[in-house]
Fold Delta-aminolevulinic acid dehydratase.
Amino acid sequence: MTSPFPQQFPTTRLRRLRQNGWIRSLTSENVLTPSDLIWSMVVHDGDEARIPVGSMPDLYRLNVSEAVKAARKASSLNIPAIAIFPHINPSRKDETGREALNPDGLIPDVIKAMKDAAPDVGIICDVALDPYTSHGHDGLIDSEGYVLNDETSEMLVQQAIVQAEAGADVVAPSDMMDGRIGAIRKALEAAGHTNTMILSYAAKYASGFYGPYRDAIGSATALKGDKKTYQQNPANSDEALREVAMDIAEGADMVMVKPGLPYLDIVRRVSETFAIPTIAFQVSGEYAQIKAASARGWIDGDRVMMETLLSFKRAGAAGIITYFAEYAGELLND
Ligand SMILES: NCC(=O)CCC(=O)O
Ligand SMILES: [Mg+2]
């Protein structure tokens, strides 16, 4: 008998610990609470309060005053942080995405308004150009459409500084350019933002699960080609560890794995290997598939939502960015 767990029936009956609620609760290895959730929120610069997103039922793009209400709600639900993503009016998009550097733009406005209303809620800002470029890529492109690494990184540095100046607690580069974490850290230090945190989208995969998000931020029709020259190949796992190691060395305070559920193995490897707060992003397509199957009565939506959120904890995630945060937060507070 070489098993490290010598167990014999009927001395050992694992079902004894499952026989009723109290013992299941007592022996539960993981628990999901509102403080595990990061509210993924799409904001827009128009007057309309709430604009529905077709491919993401019950999700709305919020204007600034609705975003402020949402920040107060996050506080009352004990949701520690909000990750904001902008839907930019197409008239303000161009080839270089320079609206991303506008200190009076949508994101700086939202940050200031939210921090005023709910200073105890952390604000996490997406650092990337895709909401701002007319071609929908996360960076500057050359004449062949190739996304330029170092030139893009220079813009991301400026974008991160604009966000930090507006009061963002965390800047979260989601672009997958090489070297941008070090460049952003250096610039934040130089500008006196020594306490601004960096959450690196370190292992972001070129995924089909982002479809509804591109609808939500209005970059779906704009996007030409795909993002495979900068986002990771879904076939790879060792490569994710190299990405994470580099970003930590360059100054990342937390790292992210994205998408979430299809990449739980990566969440596990990263959190075990590096012992750094590892955030999982339950992306738009993951949200949409649960909502769609639930609407047809094919699955119990609430139950599957909670099961997926808990599975991130089990895999080792310190937190989960999710479009379900408000609703799951309400259920968890009941
Ligand atoms: N930079 C943020 C995203 O790409 C979000 C993707 C999604 O929710 O599908
Ligand atoms: Mg990288």
Notes: The radius of gyration is 21 Å. Residues 85, 126, 128, 174, 210, 213, 283-285 surround 5-azanyl-4-oxidanylidene-pentanoic acid (ligand 1) (CB under 6 Å). Residues 149-166 form the longest helix (18 residues).
